[in-house]
Amino acid sequence: MTQSFASLSFPRPTEASLADGFGAVADLLDRHDLAGALSRFDRERRTFESWSALVYLRFAQDTTSEDAKQDRDYADRLTPKATAHEVTLKKRFLSEQLHDATSTIVGPHVLALWKSDVTTFDSRIETALGEEARLTSEYTALLASARIEIDGHTVNLSGLAPWMEHPDRTIRHAAEQARWAFFAEHGEELDTLYGRLVELRTDMARTLGFETYTPLGYRRLRRVDYSPEDVARFREEVATHVTPLVTSLLEQRRKEMGRSTLHYWDESFVDPRGNPKPAGDYDLLIERAQTMFDRMSGDLGPFFKSMISGGYVDLKNRDGKAGGGFCTAFPDVGMPFIFANFNGTHGDINVFTHEMGHAYQNWRSRDLPTIDELWPTMEAAEIDSMGLEFLTWPHMELMVEDGAADRFRRMHLIGSLSFLPYGVCVDHFQHEVYANPTMTAQERHETWLRLERHYLPWRDYGDLSYPAHGGRWQAQGHIYRNPFYYIDYTLALCCAMQLWLQSRRDEPAAMKAYEGLCAQGGSAPFTGLIARAGLVSPFASGVLADVVQEAADFLENGPR
What we know:
Elements: H1 15-30, H2 34-61, H3 66-93, H4 99-106, H5 108-117, H6 126-144, E1 148-150, E2 153-155, H7 161-164, H8 169-185, H9 187-207, H10 213-220, H11 228-241, H12 243-257, H13 264-267, H14 282-295, H15 300-310, E3 313-316, E4 326-330, E5 335-342, H16 347-364, H17 378-391, H18 396-399, H19 405-435, H20 441-455, H21 465-471, H22 477-481, H23 487-505, H24 507-520, H25 526-532, H26 543-557
Parallel strand pairs: 3-5
Antiparallel strand pairs: 1-2, 4-5
Helix pairs in contact: 1-2, 1-3, 2-3, 3-6, 4-5, 6-9, 8-21, 9-10, 11-19, 12-19, 14-15, 16-17, 16-24, 17-23, 17-24, 19-20, 19-23, 20-21, 23-24, 23-26
């Protein structure tokens, strides 16, 4: 029986308890008990990760809570201490005397991850890591503090979404004006915050012997099977094959709407009849979701039931709650947790199925032997999430308002295609920033504008002066909190769309491939996982062009 979330409690670690726990691992090594040392090492890491995940989740649930802030700050300071112990022990496991025997027990992939990990930490950057965590939390709290007046309501940034997609263009425009007024008001603070993060990360990289932060950033994301050069080629594939298609789709929409110009506030209004809305309120969506997962093959249904009954979801938007959505997990209990902000738009369905995909993967791989295998690296993890978005398509009649399922599916596909140029723009921006860390704030804004014109040439901000002058990137939290993460969504989307195409031809086979991919967790690197699932690497020549062409055919001709 699943332990309820409300009852979760993990021991609060201290510097002394960390030294004792990881010291016990060293003692076992000194006694030549390698298997025992590896088992204790894994157990110590799971216990710390469970406590840490709960602390950061509690802060996200209420960024105004002083207790949650203090716990978060404590975790920010303690995490580098835990990392120091981990790296010291990983170096021992990787030593010439223990390398081969360790590989026999944990496997070559986990060993490859550890080899990358030990290059990302040194006691000399311990204080800087704590400061980095503090600054990213400051960004989260700043955005969560937004109180925006719109149409007689006071909402946060997540709650603004229904007005940003309103059928009335004037209301959409007003919503975007209100949104960007908040960023303009805090623009200098956001520039300063990011500048400090870039400087801090660059200093850490140089301390560790890297010329720039980029190679360190890739290693922190545990990318062991592809390089920045591979990513750069993929970005240009998007510019070549996807940007023209999205430009054409938006021009078609402009004509359908009878507009002389398609402005930024029109981009989110995909369907001229109005973006399809969820079928009902929160309770109805949860009930319908249970029916949907029960109808799908495998164990999605029982797993979702355990998530709900155990209280492992927090999906309602409220004041003080951090924006966005994510999935975290507690390895000591083998259960994930879904966090999101429902706001009454189609995005509720997208974020729910997306985070449910992450949760299902983590649950399916919960019994893999090491903590390093419970999650795959980020780009592989996003296949699990985006893949479920597409694989739930046949059941959308349950989740959206009556008669709107086909419109929802079309909108989801258009949104996915439109995301690709934006996603690679975010990535390219970060590569330029960290290659030139002394950029001024103004130069960063100019860099964003230049790249936006390359990847999203249709974008017209009209009278929204703040994003028109290059401030759009400041609303993308990954740029502050998770440098270089964002390209993962685009790489994964190329793979998830392959699953979608397979499901149109053979739905049971696609579901089987998906379930198998989730069960693999992080037992192999990105390219190895997708090869096992029968998917083609996004870095392979022509694969993106082929996927995009089939999607374009679907939009033009409908399902065949």
